[in-house]
Automatic annotation (TrEMBL):
Coiled coil: none annotated. This is UPF0311 protein GCM10009825_00750. Belongs to the UPF0311 family. It comes from the Bacteria.
Length: 139
């Protein structure tokens, strides 16, 4: 998915907060194909120099018009230097970053009702201007 420039809230009593706008993207896989609708956001909580908690909320629209709400929580961990580079928009070798997520997918579509009753897990890679997420259903 494509993302915009981070909006820095800054250090709060709980830790450093920022928001990253989600501006679009594509979905491709064996069960779903479509696009990421613009207007979502990833609310980030930088727990420290090596750990970031992510809380993203956005909507997918399948090629046949069904909509899916995604609430994706994640952990991203790496060395202080690598996290600093990622947060400034610089590409970092994905093997140096632990990025795992738990996307919760819900829909009103009867054709995709199975999403409402499945647990999914995923991995992520942050690249300049985008995030690539691979999601797997746990059966």
């Amino acid at each position: 998915m494509s993302v915009g420039e981070p909006v820095e809230v800054g250090p709060t009593p709980e830790g450093h907060r920022r928001m990253v706008p989600i501006t679009g993207g594509t979905v491709r896989g064996p069960s779903l194909n479509g696009r990421v609708l613009p207007g979502g956001a990833d609310y980030q909580f930088l727990r420290g120099p090596t750990l970031t908690e992510l809380d993203a909320r956005y909507v997918l629209e399948t090629d046949d018009g069904h909509r899916i709400f995604v609430h994706n929580t994640a952990l991203r961990h790496g060395s202080a230097r690598d996290i600093e580079l990622l947060n400034s928009g610089v590409a970092v070798d994905p093997s140096l970053i632990y990025f795992r997520c738990w996307p919760r997918l819900t829909t009103a579509s009867p054709a995709l009702d199975w999403l409402n009753t499945r647990l999914t897990l995923g991995t992520g890679v942050r690249q300049p201007g985008q995030v690539v997420i691979s999601i797997f259903t746990v059966d």
